Amino acid sequence: MARNPPQDIKDGKGPATALFINDATPKPVPKQGEALVRIKAFGLNRMDLIQREGKYPVPPQAPPTLGVEFSGTVESLGPAPGPDNDNDGGGDDDFRPGDAVFGLAYGGAYAQWIAVPTAMLLRKPASLTWEQAAGIPETWMTATQALHLVGGFSAGGAALWHAGASGVSIAGIQLSRRAGAAAVYATAGSDEKCRFAERELGAARAFNYRSGDWSREVLEATGGRGVDLIVDFVGAGYFAQNLAAAARDARWVMLGLLGGSKLPEGVDIGALLYKRVRLEGSTLRSRDLAYQRRLRDRLAEYLPDFESGALKIFIDAVLPMEEIVKAHQLMEENKTRGKIICTVP
């Protein structure tokens, strides 16, 4: 039996040091509408750490192996649909063995091979490296989802992206400007990261949440009006400040709960009503294939901008797959500016 040595977790969950290469895992076989991809590189995401700790609600179609974004070459394709069968796997994209691709998966990207619906693949431009391509799918699709599908952002509005040096917000700040934002603001945990958001990403202002009241600074920067879109990964810890920074009729997209899910005692939610703020939580990994394909098609529209450099892919570190423990520990330090990528032998 062909093997597919992926990264696995001892006892199913644990610290970074629990990760190991499991040589007993069989090579996947693509089903109808799927492609078998020989992985060249994969990207790390915050959800990987949470899943490794056993705290992430993994969708039922996901394998136990971590990883949701990758780049590689198509090795083979699943069986073609019969004359009476719909190809609901999305295998109408005319991929061929040998094609260079990158894409999104429900899981399983920390491996040498992955079987994935072709509806979740894009062709890799020759000008992008394997590492660059592997760092695109999850972060840029999530940012697109928050900005457009959930946030309904319109040109001329002002946007606020928390965790301004994270992969999703690096994408989101750039996409907000691409969408015609009047101004884009960010928060980050160091002056260095704030300057990065301003100088490299084009944020009008970035605020260090460790050294000041960022909601007051947002209001000062907007002349007291507030922002039209807030994209938040923190949750309860930022609830009151997000309400203060929101403009009337603002959209507030919650993508994470890193600061907890229970509001502090005494938090006044009245501004939700009188400001007519729309708050909506959203995830990408649990969405069905048709939804994810819509995002993939939207992402395909950005490819010329990636190639020209109008949209920038920031990679903080590239490590071999064998150093996955170090890669997870690096992400846990929260010091990176951009993606952590692992290459696959």
Provide structural commentary:
The chain is of the alpha/beta class. The protein has two domains: 7-136 and 285-343, Alpha-Beta Complex (Quinone Oxidoreductase, Chain A, domain 1), CATH 3.90.180; 143-281, Rossmann fold, CATH 3.40.50.720. It is built from eleven helices and 15 strands. It has helices at 46-52, 130-134, 137-150, 167-178, 191-199, 214-221, 239-245, 270-274, 289-300, 303-308, 324-332, and strands at 7-9, 19-21, 34-43, 69-77, 100-104, 113-117, 121-123, 158-161, 183-188, 205-208, 227-232, 246-254, 278-281, 315-320, 339-343. Helix 3 packs across helix 4 (167-178) and helix 3 (137-150) packs across helix 9. The mean pLDDT is 93.
What's the topology here?
Blueprint: E1 7-9, E2 19-21, E3 34-43, H1 46-52, E4 69-77, E5 100-104, E6 113-117, E7 121-123, H2 130-134, H3 137-150, E8 158-161, H4 167-178, E9 183-188, H5 191-199, E10 205-208, H6 214-221, E11 227-232, H7 239-245, E12 246-254, H8 270-274, E13 278-281, H9 289-300, H10 303-308, E14 315-320, H11 324-332, E15 339-343
Parallel strand pairs: 8-9, 8-11, 9-10, 11-12, 12-13, 14-15
Antiparallel strand pairs: 1-2, 3-4, 3-6, 3-15, 4-5, 5-7
Helix pairs in contact: 3-4, 3-9, 6-7
